[in-house]
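Sample intake sheet
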Amino acid sequence: MRKIVVLTGAGMSVESGLKTFRDADGLWENYPVAKVATHEGWEADPTLVTNFYNMLRKKCIGTQPNEGHRLVAKLEEKYDVTVVTQNVDNLHEMAGSSKVIHLHGELMKVCSSRDVDDPRYQITLTPENCEVEPGTRAGDGSLLRPFIVFFGEGVPMISVAAEEAQRADIFIIIGTSLAVYPAAGLIHYVRPGVPVYLIDPNPISAGSNVKQIQKGASEGMKELSALLMK
């Protein structure tokens, strides 16, 4: 079975009603990045950070996958598909994708602030119980923090994602401007001659070997699915 690797960014979830972080009316507009998405911000005011992610979870709950998510999941009928996402929502999983690598963490999880990657202290929250009371502690006694890769922190899953990209027979990029590293660098792990498709409504310069479908996630995936699923 041929292998498809799909790299998705914020534009993947826009049609589901989730704002991107960097657009003019994006989420950073009212919350300075340094205060809510850096280790220094967490150290300075963990209550502010905890409440910010509580708010994001409440916005996310009730959000549904869009047709783009569903069409990515449907590729599994014919291909071995791995989704590598920069998004912290769980819309790919909700749509039915079975292999999803989250580069920047997962909004519905919290973890130890002493050792973020220790699975013993990671907790998956539920829609009914999605708020963390500021000051709540993990099993190791440290404060529970969002399971999010803050700006300036390492991206532990990038090496796993790079291995997947090297194995791809088809590489698809959806809804990312390829401006955020290290995720943007994954395209350089794709073997020469492997077809690369980029779905985004904005023109993006990604190299001569990249075929761009200049549409949103759902319309772009409709066009690409017609090609790949025939």
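Comment: Strands lie at 3-8, 80-85, 100-102, 105-112, 123-124, 144-148, 170-174, 196-199, 210-213. Residues 5 and 175 are 14 Å apart (CA to CA).
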